[in-house]
Design goal:
2 copies of one chain form a homodimer. By secondary structure, chain A is of the alpha+beta class. Helix content of chain A is 37%, strand content 29%.
């Protein structure tokens, strides 16, 4: 294979109660990557669109190219590859932008080379891309972007990733308010110690959410989407959060929370109609306080990356 | 119906990672209760065996009779009932002794009366019995004793109880060392604040354990049976705990932990052979330090209470 074009999805990490251990993938938005073998023996970034010039073009510093360089080094294949990256989602939005690029790159180069890596190896290389971009090798965006559906990261050491089922009628509404929250700030604001009684509620909800996913019990999924630990602190960083969440719940969504470290907010609904209505209502709430936003309504992506073209 | 004889099972609360939210029922040991209608209009305790005289015989203070009095009051039925309670399990062992009695009583009287209460009402009355006995209305022994199998208590307020599947080949080894730990001491020793990083590991394991139960993934169940919060503290109260646990793990069990607030220790295995061997090895370890113990090996009880006789 000489060239390949791959889509990798955005993802919602944490899913209210599952801080650092749960995430799910979206059908839209996401990133597109195009790889073409070249004769130079070098990995080059030829083009990046949709990033407003924000992403590094140094192949060692850009997560997509860094992932590819690392994989080629691991496989001892001194190939040249031209990379074109089309960011079709906002950066720094809490929707796993760097994870989508890292997964797109790792998945695409593995396909291009005839799948020498198994899926856990692809995951680990994509996590390296996440580390390049964010400084930490979290898997709660990378793993759902790669495997699709809901994913549980039970443990990091050793890495233990479990794909969970996604009920057929589950839709996500995601809204990205055009404000910036740095992932580092969203981490630093958290307390290192928490109350045991709140932790008990949280792991009860993790159990309920996972049980609801296995049994397609939409009401249980909704009841379990409560975050007693992180949301009360992080929501302070998102102006209008309470009103936006209330608007979503009023529209009949199952539950609503912060996507990853924010500022995007997500809701889960049974069926697309509620999901679309909720997204509109959430947008109106942000607009009331002068914040423009982008909305995405999508079934939960159960597939992960897609090969769009190859030659 | 004039009389009924019911068995209700012992149970293992917490199940390593699920402090206060998870429990499962055993086929053995358990309690037997016999109810006979009398003409006096009073609820009386006629006989208690197997408690070494430890349980109160005042009908308002004994959990079994208190549950029955409460149910009759709720139903406005001024019936007289003679109660015979046969404790066939150790008291204060961490195996849900008071829960078994409370569930046996609530289930038996409901059957005797032709099932006027639904199962959630029976649960709430049984929780009242637990409160009489222990001072707190925890459900993590009562709910599995009543519903059988594994049970998740997602939330207490409102009460939200979810029955989880129990894989077919799952066996429990339970060992009760003949030492005493007061539930209150086992609670007081815990810290009110915990590290967020440990809480994250804990809810990852809760997710893994529940996922393993749904998919009959025995290895995942085992990997998830790790307690980063409670066991490191409570195990100090159980002499020889580390050696007993090591003996169980060496025998090939999936995982091992403290049953409820102890002092009993439990392990889960795939198949009965490993479960039996592990129980023997655990017993030998306690014996080495001069502690006598009782062992129980049982399939996970998927049924809850059983009506043994009625007339």
């Amino acid at each position: 294979m000489e060239s390949i074009r791959v889509f990798a999805p955005a993802s919602v990490a944490n899913v209210s109660c599952g801080f650092d251990i749960l995430g799910f993938a979206l059908n839209t938005p996401g990133d597109e990557i195009i790889l073409n073998q070249n004769d130079s023996g070098e990995v080059k970034i030829v083009d990046i669109t949709g990033d407003d010039g924000q992403l590094p073009k140094d192949p060692e510093k850009n997560s997509a190219s860094a992932v590819i360089i690392n994989i080629l080094k691991h496989l001892k294949l001194p190939l040249g590859i031209d990379i074109r990256l089309h960011k079709k989602m906002p950066l720094g939005s809490g929707l796993g932008s760097s994870a989508a690029s890292s997964v797109a790159a790792a998945y695409a180069v593995n396909e291009l080379l005839g799948n020498p890596l198994d899926s856990m190896e692809v995951l680990e290389f994509a996590m390296y891309g996440e580390k390049i971009a964010c400084g930490s090798d979290h898997a709660d965006n990378v793993a759902p972007a790669l495997f699709g559906g809901f994913v549980l990261i039970r443990s990091y050491n050793p890495l233990d990733v479990i794909k969970l089922p996604a009920p057929e009628e589950l839709y996500a509404s995601v809204i990205h308010p055009r404000i910036e929250i740095k992932t580092k700030d969203a981490r630093d604001i958290l307390k290192k110690q928490i109350q045991l009684k709140n932790a008990i509620k949280q792991w009860g909800n993790v159990g309920g959410l996972i049980s609801g996913l296995y049994t397609s019990d939409y009401e249980l999924i909704g009841r379990s989407m409560v975050d007693h630990i992180i949301e009360p602190i992080r929501s302070i960083l998102i102006p209008g959060y309470d009103a936006v969440k209330a608007a979503a719940l009023d529209s009949g969504v199952l539950g609503c929370g912060i996507s990853g470290s924010g500022p995007s907010v997500f809701a889960l609904s049974r069926g697309s109609r509620v999901a679309r209505e909720a997204a509109q209502k959430m947008k109106e709430e942000f607009k009331k306080i002068g914040i423009e936003s982008d909305i995405y309504v999508s079934k939960v992506n159960n597939q992960g990356p897609i090969v769009l073209e190859q030659a």
